[in-house]
């Protein structure tokens, strides 16, 4: 195996592919060569032993390791990957596994792999994953990876972004939009839960009918019942006429209950009866009215924790939790950051009648490397602030930092050059989060199946999701 020279790595980086299936390796190499820019040097190894030999004689920027191809080394997956990582000299390690071996992927991440992907993967999908990982760890230039490598920039029912995580969300919406079953949307604040509800409605069979949204956290508890179910004339002082509630107004269409976890327990029991029967009574009215609505609800909190704290009825949760959708945080889809930022820059620039020439390379890198605890909403606010503060031209890193009044999405600066950059090593909770969330995605949002594959209990996943949300708010 010849040693790679500096000219090779300068062209487009170097990759080591560990794959025992020669046909699959050949097809993947051809596809990656076409998808990745800069003519990368790709070396293949059919097993773990040859991979270790390659790593001793050459340096690589990224290692793609099919975990099933490492079986020639009689060690645990965790130990084999650990040896690869030690010999990698800083290369990014992406573990590849089939859907049945998620536990092996977990072991690989524990041993130092930077990320994992589930097979089968085609060239464009794998190139996209490499691009996301390179951006996250600051190696885009080394690998000559484009900011959004061969990802279609999607504008889906108001959503902007074409990352693999969002493509999965789009597929879920397309599949379940036509159903009448309830949808339970989870995700951190600012990820677009209201946009998801609107997309489900617009792509479903009720698109010509109204969608009525109720924010359960914004309405006082003593007014919530009348807002939801309506009021009969004379029900209380000031009720001079009959008034329809949100459920009646949504008849034939969609009722969206945002922040469902904030609903009072006494009203939850009435909502449960309404879901079971489709019948409601206005406040102060003896009769019942039949309505036909599809219910979509959303929360940024952990429903299982709310249940354990006796703040949310378990029977109501299972009545609503029929078709779950989880919206990934922005930090898990870095390839969408610039797409979103450019979209907002164009939109608000037009609104303010100003012309901007995009983002400088330094500003783009600064944006992509952020954690964005406020997710898309935080990025949107930052870009709008930039448009208002400046008169046009190119957005520089200095301008972006000045506009970043929250200052929460940036890692610590002024780190000595000889020390590893904070962005190059993710905290353990974030690595664990990526493993679990990816497992949930692979099982179509089914937390019970993902938990079984990870050999943990579903309650553990719900508990960890809440702890991640708390950590994000503190970050």
TrEMBL record:
Keywords noted in UniProt: Activator, ATP-binding, DNA-binding, Nucleotide-binding, Phosphoprotein, Transcription, Transcription regulation, Two-component regulatory system
InterPro entries: AAA+_ATPase, AAA_lid_NorR, CheY-like_superfamily, Homeodomain-like_sf, HTH_Fis, P-loop_NTPase, Sig_transdc_resp-reg_receiver, Sigma_54_int
Residues with 4-aspartylphosphate modification: 66
The Sigma-54 factor interaction domain, residue ranges: 159-388
Source taxon at top rank: Bacteria
Response regulatory domain span: 14-134
SMART domains: AAA (SM00382), REC (SM00448)
Membrane-traversing stretches: none
PROSITE patterns: RESPONSE_REGULATORY, SIGMA54_INTERACT_2, SIGMA54_INTERACT_3, SIGMA54_INTERACT_4
Protein name in UniProt: Sigma-54 dependent transcriptional regulator
């Amino acid at each position: 195996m010849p040693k790679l020279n500096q000219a090779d790595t300068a062209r487009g980086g170097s990759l080591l592919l560990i794959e025992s299936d020669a046909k699959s390796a050949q097809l993947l190499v051809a596809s990656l060569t076409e998808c990745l820019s800069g003519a990368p040097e790709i070396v293949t190894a059919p097993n773990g032993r040859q991979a270790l030999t390659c790593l001793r004689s050459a340096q690589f920027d990224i290692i793609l390791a099919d975990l099933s191809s490492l079986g020639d080394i009689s060690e645990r997956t965790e130990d084999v990957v650990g040896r690869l990582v030690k010999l990698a000299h800083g290369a990014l390690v992406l573990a590849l596994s089939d859907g049945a071996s998620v536990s092996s992927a977990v072991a690989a991440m524990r041993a130092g792999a930077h990320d994992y992907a589930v097979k089968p993967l085609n060239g464009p999908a794998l190139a996209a994953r490499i691009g996301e990982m390179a951006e996250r760890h600051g190696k885009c230039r080394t690998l000559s990876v484009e900011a959004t490598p061969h990802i279609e920039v999607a504008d889906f029912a108001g959503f902007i972004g074409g990352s693999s995580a969002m493509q999965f969300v789009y597929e879920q919406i397309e599949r379940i939009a036509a159903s009448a079953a309830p949808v339970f949307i989870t995700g951190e604040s600012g990820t677009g839960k209201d946009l998801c509800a609107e997309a489900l409605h617009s792509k479903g069979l009720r698109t010509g009918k109204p969608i009525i949204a109720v924010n359960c956290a914004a309405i006082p508890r003593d007014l919530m019942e009348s807002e939801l179910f309506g009021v009969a004339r004379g029900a209380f002082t000031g009720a001079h006429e009959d008034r329809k509630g949100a459920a009646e107004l949504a008849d034939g269409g969609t009722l969206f209950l945002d922040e469902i976890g904030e609903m009072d327990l006494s009203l939850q029991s009435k909502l449960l009866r309404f879901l079971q029967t489709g019948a409601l009574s206005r406040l102060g009215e003896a009769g019942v009215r039949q309505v036909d609505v599809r219910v979509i609800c959303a929360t940024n909190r952990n429903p299982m924790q709310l249940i354990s704290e006796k703040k949310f009825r378990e029977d109501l949760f299972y009545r609503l939790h029929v078709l779950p959708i989880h919206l990934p945080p922005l930090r898990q889809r870095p390839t969408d950051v610039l797409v979103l930022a450019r979209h907002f820059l164009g939109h608000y620039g037009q609104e303010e009648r100003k012309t901007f020439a995009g983002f400088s390379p330094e500003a783009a890198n600064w944006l992509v490397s952020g954690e964005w605890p406020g997710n898309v909403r935080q990025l949107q606010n930052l870009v709008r602030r930039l448009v208002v503060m400046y008169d046009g031209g190119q957005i520089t890193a200095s301008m972006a930092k000045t506009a970043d009044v929250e200052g929460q999405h940036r890692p610590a600066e002024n780190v000595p050059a000889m020390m590893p950059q904070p962005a190059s090593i993710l905290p353990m909770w974030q690595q664990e989060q990526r493993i679990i969330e990816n497992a949930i995605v692979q099982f179509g949002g089914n937390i019970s199946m993902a938990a079984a594959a990870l050999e943990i209990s579903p309650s553990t996943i719900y508990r960890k999701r809440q702890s991640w949300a708390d950590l994000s708010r503190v970050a």
